[in-house]
Structure formats: structure tokens, C-alpha cells
């Protein structure tokens, strides 16, 4: 007989397999984002709450997982292999033309990128990207938060970023410093020791960074505006 912990554990491991939080998995399946929260797994009086078969069916449809694959996740040791640093993971994008999505504010925190600037870890949402996944298998999206990139990018705009792509002068880029600062700029100049960046907002000064202070730099290839 299947236990309460096994069913919820399978949902958690399916979310992890697709680099999502339980709430991100619920959103992707068209459910209330809190549907799979741990606080919802027990009622106020301590009774066990079970996910509905309809919810599980929607999750399987949204992720492309089969019933057999879901059953495999019932085992506590079920998991997925991590990719080497700097190499795209087959789970990005998770399916179809979906790609990982993260807010700029979250991008400055640790745990969301590997050493090569590729998506890693949990906590990513997904967004649809108008290109075949086979063509852009490693791209991800950053959502603009705030007005610091006006007038070019507004709050809520989504920037599609391609890590590992060659960047050239006048490219629009996203840069993450070793201290966790994340910024969208225009690459003006790059030398063996430093990069010069032009701010998108004329009210903000240009920046010059030593390459030793740069964690990664990635090219912006598309923006929703």
C-alpha cells in the first residue's frame, strides 16, 4: 500500500527532476501555486491530506512524465544525475519550448548557477520561448525587476540569455560579479584584464570591472517587450 510520504515524496522528486520547487511544479501544471506546499499536506487538526488523482494527472501531463516514471519516484533513492559544471543539462528546457525563468533579484543569490553560468539547482520557474529547444538548448530567462534598466527594459520584461555564447562589442549582456551583483549592460570594450560596460539607463554611470571580479557574462539574445 502506498503511503502518504511516498506520494508526496514522488511529487517532490518529480519537481526536483525538472529543476522546480513544488510550487513551481504546481504552477506549471495549472494548479494553485500553494497546492503542493508542505503546509498543505496536513490539515489544521493533523489529518493527512493527499494530492488528488486529477492533480497528479495534470502534473504528469505538464512534465511529460509517464505513470511508470512517477511510480519510480516513489522510492526515496530516486533522483537524477547532475551535469558537469558548464555543460547544458538535458532537463533545460524541461519540455517543449519552455526554458528556466528567474528574477534578477534572485539571480544574485547563490545556488542558481554553476561555475559556467548555466542554470543549476532548484527554485526556477519556466517561461515559453519562441524557438525550437534543439536550437537553444541552454538558454534561460531573467525577469526584469525595478526601473534601473529603463527606458530599454521595463519592470516585468523577460530577457532571454544564452550562457557560453561568444560576446562582442556592443552586445547586450548580463553580468554577474563574484560578489553576487547581477546587471544588464552593453559591452563597450573587453581587454585581457577588464571589461567596460555601458548602462542601459542614462541616469546610471558606466561600469568598468576587472575580469577577476566577474563570475560570468552572458549574451542577451531576445527580450519580451
UniProtKB/TrEMBL annotation:
Lineage top rank: taxon: Bacteria
Xref: CDD domains: S24_LexA-like
SUPFAM superfamilies per record: LexA/Signal peptidase
Keywords carried by this UniProt record: DNA-binding, Transcription, Transcription regulation
InterPro entries for the chain: LexA-like, LexA/Signal_pep-like_sf, Peptidase_S24_S26A/B/C
Pfam families: Peptidase_S24 (PF00717)
Residue ranges constituting the Peptidase S24/S26A/S26B/S26C domain according to the UniProt record: 100-221
One of the record's GO molecular function terms: DNA binding
Annotated protein name in UniProt: Helix-turn-helix transcriptional regulator
Species assigned in the record: Rhizobium acidisoli
